[in-house]
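Example record

One chain of 154 residues, shown exactly as stored in the release files.
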Amino acid sequence: MDNEDHNSVNLVVVTLNLQTGTPCLLVMCLFFGSTAEAEEYTASIKAIGPVVAMENRKKYSEINDGMDGFCAKGGFKLFKLMGATRFDPEPWAEVANIFVDLKERCPHFVSGGYGFEWVTGKQKEAGMDSRGHRRKLSLGLRAFPGTRMPILDA
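Predicted structure tokens for this chain:
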């Protein structure tokens, strides 16, 4: 949904399902707007299927509280929201195929992922340097490798 009146936030991680070894997308979408518009925005993601969707409506002031377990202790929230105006599912199939190929070449590969983040121009510039060396980053990729060590599985 291309709509400059609302901000949307997306974080996508491509990883392997630990039980089946097949690739899967982990997608977190936050839409700041009406419920009807949010349903329209997430329709293309849900259409990929099969999908497990969990939906929750929160006050804007509580939107970041679900990330507390991943943040530094002591009240710091050391993460940044990412945003996009639309979601196009087609390119993610190519990324998922990387994991199929990796699993065939490296049978000990059991988990891991590619995490994609991007920022929109609608975000207000922070008054302090809270992102460190990534302050001017507009698109980022993180790889999370994971292997099984046969000696530890015995």
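Notes: DSSP finds three helices and four strands in the chain.
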